[in-house]
Amino acid sequence: MENVESIEEKKNSELNTPNSTLQKRVKQFILFWATGFGAGYSPFAPGTLGTLIAIPVYYFLSEIPSPIYEITLIAFFFLSVWISENAGIFFRKKDDQRIVIDEIMGFLITMLWVPKTTFFVIAGFILFRFFDILKPFPIRLIDRRLEGGFGVVLDDVMAGVYANIILQVIDLIAR
User: Fold this and answer.
1) Half-sphere exposure of residue 151, counting CA atoms within 13 Å on the CB side?
2) How many helices (H) and strands (E) would you count in the chain?
3) Cβ–Cβ under 8 Å, residues 153 and 160
4) Dist. CA 78–CA 45, nearest whole Å
5) Tens digits of per-residue pLDDT, 134-150?
């Protein structure tokens, strides 16, 4: 008959094995979100598809009243950092192209405090992809110098800030 200590040791060792149910579920959770619900697995333009996935996410979250919406974006930022960090470990590459949660975060920043119209969503999509691909100063520097999930997500947040500034100017001129 096993004693209580050996049962506890067995439970702990099972939790720490790569085949544990808990670890499998955590990995599935991380990869599901990191890949933008699977869009990141696309062999063609996964970042663009990740940004397209961000559009319905934006429409869903934008229904949350301010300031809870902004708090939700901050929480999503930190969740994105954690998910990107861990997905990079699973994929064995810091900013693997399959990781697109950073594009979702960047697009949400792009659309922050911008009118929720078809024009602004399309313009936001185009501007965000432009800045995410071009990586003007200091975005490329952030992309190269910051380690881990923080570096993966922050360059897209900065691309979102650049795109947001242009959208804010367009909105100001259009008024």
Assistant:
1) 14
2) 8, 0
3) no
4) 25
5) 999 998 888 888 888 99
Amino acid at 4: V
- Which among 114, 159, 153, 118 has a CA at the least distance from the CA of 135? 159
Q: Is 7 exposed, middle or buried (0-12, 13-18, 19+ CB in 10 A)?
A: exposed
SS3 category, 35: coil
Q: Which amino acid is at 34?
A: A
d(CA 123, CA 88): 30
Task: Give residue 169's identity as a one-letter amino acid code.
Answer: V
pTM of the model: 0.86
Q: Distance between CA atoms of 81 and 101, rounded to whole angstroms?
A: 9
Encode 97-119: b = buried (16+ Cβ within 10 Å), e = exposed: ebbbbbbbbbbbbbbbebeeeee
Residues whose CB is less than 8 angstroms from the CB of residue 52 and which lie 6 or more positions away in sequence, other chains included: 39, 125
What digits encode the pLDDT tens for the residues 2-48? 454 554 455 445 445 556 889 999 999 999 999 999 999 999 999 99
Q: How far apart are CA 2 and CA 25, in angstroms?
A: 29
CA 168 to chain centroid, in Å, comes to: 23
In this structure, the number of other CB atoms found within 10 A of the CB of residue 30 comes to: 20
